């Protein structure tokens, strides 16, 4: 069985974000970048499934400019078998990514497509769901547990974190699973694997070769910081509080 | 048993009152903390008191009690003695009778100087201020002062000097040698309220701030301007810059940025008699006269109180990499250090060492930590690089890691792939101290030894102690500074006797330092002679007498003569 994992290169989780002075986006020059934490969790889950004997190959894929190779090397160092880099300089939005993944899935034919539930830069939470729709595959999103039975071949049980609690779904393979925070704790890439990863292949491919037209279906108009929190006001009595809530804040 | 000892107490008190000055029979003395093994102490004490050259009233008293041969239990002695951390045979410390006792009129005077907010007599707050971070030393101060300006500090000290009231300057109270808490009833002068940042030059990176600024806050502030503080230590969330300067704190980045002696450009200090000495220069180079500030850097609050600091901050470089490496033997660690210096060169910013017992301690007692590597090894190295170009640094790091693996220096390791992973490696290293405190009693030794001998002392001490305690070692291998810690279920005089003076003698034999970065505080004045000559110590005492003739600043600490109290001072 083959597992395909999609990973995204984002601004490092701990970096303080700064908006560009022209409000066109966020400052990314000279800023530390790393693999999206949810994608790391997805990759870890794929590796665990392979180690448990449910899969024979873990294929990792990323899309974007030349620096994607850094993220892919990290993924290979963690233990992925091979990598595909969809090379493009266009800005990519979830629907485009979903279409590219659909094309890759059609050619590579994985049994499970694992993704992080969302990227920490755009918080879109759309790609997994969209690609499942395009492929007409079942989906288990916000997975906090993934179980494969040796007996029940051809299906996977996914426990999902939903607002009301936990929901368990059983999916026919091939399926799309997006991972949530509590699924696992990703491993550290150890030195011998980092050395080995240097020799593993990263296949370069373009959107044209996949037959996908990149159209910008979204346009970013403006990016600005949230308004700074205003100082609070101390009120002298409950009446004054009610008055302010009614007439100033208009919440009652 | 209790009644008998109470009786003995009364008899002793009456006897003392008859023969000696009223101070002695006073019951406002310090009580000892835990684990004091009296019979061993008493026998050792006889020797030291008899040998003491000048016998004061205090010493003779203790000699007299020896002769009684009564079963004196701890309840009685705890009002007279303190000896937890000193080695058997060291002089026991008694409250110096020259220091005045705090009176109501004094408190009122302080209230006039610092206002009501600055005078704290609340017992729960005092309890916190009286206890050190390791919960090992407990003072009995009745008064905590929190001045808000240098002028107030000057007025307080002037008054204390005239009244001969002892004072302990205190910052974040994170010191590890008991230097920041009172020994008896000294007044605590806490500088935490003086926390303004006065100026920051964005071109040169020179920061001027008050002594009570917390290190982490300063780092965050200069971080927004693209700079970083030149020192970094595990206590950064609580320690204050005044304390860092007064103890010449070292830390994790000394390897890269050097010590505070080089980075501090100026100080404003208040002397014991209230004189404010403004040496707050912001110049990189200034060769006019003697460089007095160097005395106060590392002076541990015994020569003056630091109120303002001017410090040079290096630019904060964008690219950091952290690697956690495992070695099989100590020889490989040394080889790795050599290789790192060669291959990483100017981008090397930290080189830390952790042995397996230390890692186990951290993983066991710190929540949320896990072993970065899948299998267990004997030694671990934490290597950090900091540079301005990510690609360039990664290339150098890769070359170092490849070379190291090929030559067999490290058998396994991992490189942090994002800042969360880097943070978790540092959490382990910075948390070992905390883990040891959680594990029970800990005897801490901070030694500078030649790098070749770094681990031999650990092995020798392990052989010495056997199963009695766990010996862990970690530290700044790059600087040759090992933090040797002995962890035991509780403090025990017999265990201490096996550790000291063995550790100090071992260090002295290879001409090392018995306190690489922690300072002497209350714990190590008796060990100073292992690392400094008689002449040097004599000169230090001269400076102390010059700058603080009445000895009111942080008494009983740092210099051996001051720790012995009575020989430190000229007549008042």
From TrEMBL, chain A:
Annotated family: Belongs to the ETF beta-subunit/FixA family.
SMART domains: ETF
Nuclease in keyword set: no
Chief location of this protein within or outside the cell: mitochondrion
Source taxonomy: Eukaryota, Viridiplantae, Streptophyta, Embryophyta, Bryophyta
Pfam family, any one: ETF
Keyword tags: Electron transport, Mitochondrion, Transport
Protein name (Swiss-Prot/TrEMBL): Electron transfer flavoprotein subunit beta
Quaternary structure annotation from Swiss-Prot or TrEMBL: Heterodimer of an alpha and a beta subunit.
Localization annotation: Mitochondrion matrix
Role this protein plays: The electron transfer flavoprotein serves as a specific electron acceptor for several dehydrogenases, including five acyl-CoA dehydrogenases, glutaryl-CoA and sarcosine dehydrogenase. It transfers the electrons to the main mitochondrial respiratory chain via ETF-ubiquinone oxidoreductase (ETF dehydrogenase).
TrEMBL record, chain B:
InterPro entries per record: FAD-bd_oxidored_4_C (IPR004113), FAD-bd_PCMH (IPR016166), FAD-bd_PCMH-like_sf (IPR036318), FAD-bd_PCMH_sub1 (IPR016167), FAD-bd_PCMH_sub2 (IPR016169), FAD-linked_Oxase-like_C (IPR016164), FAD-oxidored/transferase_4 (IPR051264), Oxid_FAD_bind_N (IPR006094)
Entry protein name: FAD-binding PCMH-type domain-containing protein
Pfam families to which the protein is assigned, alphabetical: FAD-oxidase_C (PF02913), FAD_binding_4 (PF01565)
Chain ranges of the FAD-binding PCMH-type domain: 137-316
Family affiliation: Belongs to the FAD-binding oxidoreductase/transferase type 4 family.
SUPFAM superfamilies reported for this sequence: FAD-binding/transporter-associated domain-like, FAD-linked oxidases, C-terminal domain
Keyword Flavoprotein recorded: yes
PROSITE patterns assigned: FAD_PCMH (PS51387)
Required cofactor names: FAD
Annotated organism of origin: Sphagnum jensenii
